[in-house]
Amino acid sequence: MKYRSTRSEETVNETYALLHGLASDGGLYVPAKFPERTITYDMVADASYQDIAYTVLQHFFPTFSEAALREMINAAYSKANFSTVDIAPLHSVLERLSVLELFHGRTQAFKDMALSLFPYLLVAAKEAEGETDEVLILTATSGDTGKAALEGFKDVDGTHIQIFYPTDGVSPMQQEQMQKQEGDNVNVTAIRGNFDDAQQFLKRLFVDKDMAAKVAAKGVRFSSANSINIGRLAPQVVYYVAAYAELVNQGAIHRDEAFNVVVPTGNFGNILAAYYAKKMGVPIGKLICASNRNNVLTDFFKTGTYDMNRQFYTTISPSMDILESSNFERFLYYVSGEDYELTNTRMKELKATGKLSVSGEELSRVQRDFSGQFISDEETKAVIAQVYNSYGYLLDPHTAVAMGAYMKELQAHPEDGSRHTVIAATAHPFKFPTPICEALEIQPGGTPYESLEHISAVTGVAFPKELAALQEKELRFTHVIDKELMGKEILSFVDTFGK
Ligand SMILES: *Cc1c(COP(=O)(O)O)cnc(C)c1O
């Protein structure tokens, strides 16, 4: 399949797009011809998660043979990598409300859904492209991507991975997970500042020709595991298709009945995947984009203006503390009717002024599919308590933001109550002990592990084994640098290769 840039006529094949991540004009790759209406219920009715993955992904990566793609899928969505055979179980909360649990992978966040498969796709793409250089994955993370990418790439031949995470925002468990990462090809560095600082700086290094030349001289090329890569996006479409099949199988909806989806959103990757699933034929009605106090997207869906000129807040849902939502550019491209010139102009405007607007006509089209809601930290904790007390179900803060957004949407549009709604649950609650203790008024412990013991004792939720095992592991990566030194950090890491 051909992929094209959102900003120009640049068109490449899928293995090139996988390997390079970002188009050379700074745009993002999108399918040149989208596989519209290629999925029906009959195709996925009784299929396993792995079979559904193949049904979906063959459209995005037709270069790979069926056997090769299935082998990658089976290795990624294996018993070793996921704690449940369902991979992404759908938990029914109420007659018209389900939670799609995307946190049963190795790092207890939905990032595992794509990052378990992505390294296989990347290595296959590298081979197909005849690329003999070693690949250095550079990734900025607001917490969950870093750990999931590290687990995905650890000790994968021909690859190295450098993760940058901000000192402000990540939870103590997320930090432990990264600081104690194992593997011989990994480096993890904390950056003073917030996620946007780290992400913006890294984007600049990524396209810096001088940097590229310096590492090329050592037989190394950069690639990214950030959610802009098509190899991150496409695997996320799969669980929305699987959720649809499961809803019909459970009798929650008829095969032609629309259901709504609520997604706790940061970089707009997860919700864009739901939009792709809808374009492929899944009967998704409304897509509700849930935000925390960093509500730039909520405002966009209300007004048609995306305005980053605002204060950045650190919240208890750190993976959503983002003002520059990187996959939003892909969405803008679709909003414009796949007009790359207009998208390019708008992205330039956003860069120059921190702000962009779509037309009134485009906004009304957007509002037919999308709606945005946000809630505060206080509201998030209240939702965690309410859902736990009413249904005995423990939400992590990100999923609680989605639940709270759903409640607000219902207040604004009570008619939505008759539609089945799926909430995307993006992290295991045990990644965020502090807000959970506060929400449920549980006595915190002296360490995050002790807090989690208390939470487990009160709620009966079992300690995920990977998190429990962390406690015994050694701290490996504890250094903190200023963002200006990120380039230097990368070069010193490259110097260690082969040593
Ligand atoms: C990454 C992440 C999000 C945001 O997902 P996007 O695809 O960036 O919108 C939400 N919740 C959790 C727990 C995450 O790790």
UniProtKB/TrEMBL annotation:
One of its GO terms (biological process) is threonine biosynthetic process. It is an enzyme of class 4 (lyase). The keyword RNA-binding does not apply. It comes from Veillonella criceti. Gene3D superfamilies: 3.40.50.1100, Threonine synthase, N-terminal domain. This is Threonine synthase. CDD domains: Thr-synth_2. Residues 2-77 form the Threonine synthase N-terminal domain. GO terms for cellular component: cytoplasm. Keywords: Lyase, Pyridoxal phosphate.
